Amino acid sequence: SFAYPDAQGVFDQINKQFYVSPEVLTELTKAFLDEIALGLSEYNHAMAMIPTFVTGVPDGTETGTFLALDLGGTNLRVCEVVLNGDKTFNLVQNQYKVSEALKHGEATALFDYLADSVDAFLTTHATTDYTSLQSDPSAHTSDAVHLGLTFSFPVEQTALNSGKILTWTKGFSAKHAIGNDVVKLLQDAFNRKHMHVKCVALVNDTVGALLSRAYTSGGCFLGAIFGTGTNGAYLEDVDKIRKFAGSAAAANGGAMVVNTEWGAFNNSKSHLPVTPFDNAVDRLSINPGYQIFEKFISGMYLGEISRTVLLSLVDATPKSLLFKGKATPSLNQHYGLDTRFLSEIEAAWIDTGATKGSVELPPLGKPSFESELSDAAKAKLTAVRKVILGPHGLGYKSEDEVSLRDAAIVRWVCALVARRAALLSGVAVATTLIQTGRAVLPGQEGSKALRERNEKIGVGVDGSLVENYPNFNTILRESLRLLVGEDVEQRVNIGLAKDGSGVGAALCALQALKQG
Ligand code: ADP
């Protein structure tokens, strides 16, 4: 009964829409390099290429005890980080809830709350005894404990320890904050409470990932986030930051970490192979036309793109191609499908105990699909169906509602969307390798020096997507291999930047003290 004029044609077309050819990946890398150059030469470019005033990365020998405060994720986080100087660290942390009232009230109330949270943390969690530093007006300021602030909102940074808040995002809207220096807002709150805590560094979470991976692995040139959003920060030659021309930073020369804000790649021109599903997701998003690259790649959107494709199949005419034409409340709900679902589906598909390994499936549109399934394929699809029916699933109640073909279609859609994301993530990584002279595009002459280099190239990554989506890294590397060649790809060492925001902020605070 599945037979209909051209069911297979519908699947083939979606396949084609999501396919990114090697040629397109190469063109995207060139366009990415152009946008990097533009962002480095002028201010207010969509891909902002923000100089961070961090002039080097750690090598693992750093020591010291620092506090870190992280605002911008789901919770407020306070940590104490002890850097042992041997690539290891000890970290204790506590999380504090930021109420809706604080998010939307006066900025001073919000920052007072941040200071109170640090105070509470020092009393109840910190391993070092800070009692002499708390609320003691007679203590010397030189005794102050140093704190790094990870603030994951758009900021125009003007020094390691100052930056103007540009806008709120992620549901914050505290009044009288925009346009003010976030470090000063926090320091004023510490001072109001006579706390001897000094905020010495302002860090973006991406920079934190770079620094913490550099510390624990002994060197790293790129930090990249593939979580709710996507972004990257890498070490650039100050000479190439052309918008610095004439400034003190330019005169100092050397290197500086640049926060790319690469989620905004492609905002202005359309290089990316957009599908109608992407257009729908963008149009209904809170920021249509912005963060276009991010919308192809990150955790916030992959579930939503998949949901949009799945619904198109449920609604297909002249006859539904999925779930007998029946949607569920979660399928109908805007952002009703978490990217975690994609990870769970892929994990179920890959690993079903005895049936581990790859299997062949008949074409999805073939009328006799189910009767042609091998036992191994049936076992895998049954595992996929369990996820569809499971707690993070699509909200169907019984196996009768989800055929094995439905399961196969869902897995195919999720894998298609995630694979494209991982391939495009490879473009971002390849671009920074080329930008920093570590690689060249296929067909371009590599310098002899480049080919003869054989140092390891460190990349630190963080975020639920790269951590949890099975084979995200493998697919990213596939794209990298294609773009920069196997010899360079083999030397790229990609590792998780654990506790990036805490350790990164501590390392940045240390940098701030060193840089004076
Ligand atoms: P953030 O980027 O905000 O610091 P995370 O790195 O935890 O936070 O990313 C959260 C995002 O990751 C959300 O968009 C969520 O949908 C997605 N996510 C959560 N769990 C998983 C998972 N197991 N696999 C893939 N994505 C996930």
How many structural domains can be distinguished in the coordinates? 2
User: Which CATH architecture of the largest domain is right?
Assistant: 3-Layer(aba) Sandwich
Strands side by side in the biggest sheet: 1-11-10-9-12-13
- What's the end-to-end separation, in Å? 74 Å
Rg, Å, rounded: 25 Å
Q: What is the number of beta strands?
A: 13
Strand percent estimate:
15-25%
CATH class category of the largest domain = Alpha Beta
Bound molecule types: adenosine-5'-diphosphate
Characterize the overall form: globular
Q: Into which percent range does the helicity of residues fall?
A: 40-55%
In short:
The protein contains 19 helices and 13 strands. The longest helix has 32 residues, at 404-435.
Describe the structure.
By secondary structure, the protein is α/β, with parallel strands linked by helices. The protein has two domains: 1-47 and 225-340 and 403-496, 3-Layer(aba) Sandwich (Hexokinase, domain 1); 63-203, 2-Layer Sandwich (Nucleotidyltransferase, domain 5). Helix content is 43%, strand content 16%. The chain has 19 helices and 13 strands. The strands form three sheets. A six-stranded mixed sheet has the order 1-11-10-9-12-13, with helices on both faces. It has a five-stranded mixed sheet with strand order 4-3-2-5-8, sandwiched between helices. Strands 6-7 form a two-stranded antiparallel ribbon. A hairpin with a 4-residue loop joins strand 3 and strand 4 (89-96). The longest helix is centred in the last third of the chain and has 32 residues, at 404-435. The termini are far apart. The model has no long low-confidence stretch (mean pLDDT 91). The protein binds adenosine-5'-diphosphate. Adenosine-5'-diphosphate (ADP) is lined by residues 73, 227-228, 299-300, 338-340, 343, 463-465, 468-469. Residues 73, 227-228, 299-300, 338-340, 343, 463-465, 468-469 line the site of adenosine-5'-diphosphate. Belongs to the hexokinase family. Pathway: Carbohydrate degradation; glycolysis; D-glyceraldehyde 3-phosphate and glycerone phosphate from D-glucose: step 1/4.
